[in-house]
Write a structure and sequence with these properties.
This protein is mainly alpha-helical and 278 residues long. The chain contains eleven helices and six strands. Helix 1 crosses helix 5 (102-117) and helix 2 (31-46) runs parallel beside helix 11 (234-258). Residues 183-209 and 261-278 have low confidence and may be disordered.
């Protein structure tokens, strides 16, 4: 393979194939699939600190979005002052505007190596022998659209794997939407001010900069993976299913760890004070 990732792809190929040979006596024809899944999970585990760092950055961006909006409105005609205020805000909160996606960019070469391996017909100057293995009789090198038809055994296997991938993408999108800042409901005291400023401030959904665009993109972007999988060989689809499912699990763990405590018997009072309900 004469690409930028040729050497690492070759190295990972030998690792996966060696693992496949070890698992063959136990799993038989499923050994190659198990090897793909295990190597993908191992790589995702290694880069998980970067993933959780990115998730923390995204959560910080969502939490700071109202304050960022206020600064943009206050210093709309003073770009230099706005930049200083934003920098100071990020420093106080121990984050940055790049914290939500910079760690993901660092992971991109790693995931590219894995995806190239599971879709390349030749590796290290020889045929990719992983693609000659099969899942339930469907070769790992075969494509969904090149099979005997959607209702054939070939098509059913692909549809089942793609359905799992779509479910994982749906879960990732659902958690991502929940992480976006939601506009606060106006209380009785602020209803008059909100209605008075509605003409100039715009709809409530526009209170957070880019919220609508982020929401729309968050709904669509995860499913791009399903479109890519529809044109990838089965080995590549299995990799995408494993990686996306791992992402869903990471988001679930992150959400559980960062869920704010809500003591029983307490409700929020005026100005943020907690009042007992009993």
């Amino acid at each position: 393979m004469s690409t930028l990732f040729g050497v690492p792809v070759d190295a990972v190929y030998h690792l996966v194939f060696a693992l496949t040979n070890v698992l063959t006596p136990v799993l038989g024809g499923l050994a190659a699939v198990a090897g793909i899944i295990l190597v993908t999970m191992a790589v995702r585990l290694l880069v998980s600190p970067l993933t959780f760092r990115a998730l923390r950055g995204q959560a910080a961006q969502a939490r700071l979005a109202p304050e960022i909006q206020r600064l943009r409105q206050r210093h709309a005609k003073q770009p230099d002052r706005l930049q200083r205020e934003l920098t100071a805000l990020y420093q106080r909160e121990g984050t940055s505007m790049f914290a939500g996606f910079a760690p993901l960019l660092v992971q991109w070469p790693v995931f590219s190596v894995l995806y190239l391996l599971f879709r390349s017909p030749t590796v290290a100057g020889a045929p990719n022998r992983l693609l000659s293995r099969d899942l339930l009789g469907v070769p790992l090198g075969s494509h969904w659209l090149s099979g005997a038809g959607i209702l054939s055994a070939h098509g059913v296997v692909f549809l089942a794997v793609l359905a799992v991938l779509a479910a994982a993408c749906w879960f990732v999108a659902r958690v991502a939407r929940r992480a976006l800042p939601q506009p606060a409901a106006a209380g009785p005291a602020s209803a008059g001010r909100a209605s008075a400023g509605r003409a100039s401030a715009g709809p409530a959904s526009a209170a957070v900069p880019g919220a609508q665009a982020l929401t729309a993109f968050g709904k669509i972007a995860p499913y791009i993976t399903v479109v890519i999988a529809a044109f990838a060989p089965l080995a590549g689809v299995i990799y995408l299913v494993t990686s996306t499912s791992w992402s869903a699990a990471e988001r679930l763990v992150f959400a559980a760890r960062t869920k704010p405590a809500s003591p029983q018997g307490l409700t929020a009072g005026p100005k943020g004070r907690r009042l007992t309900t009993g």
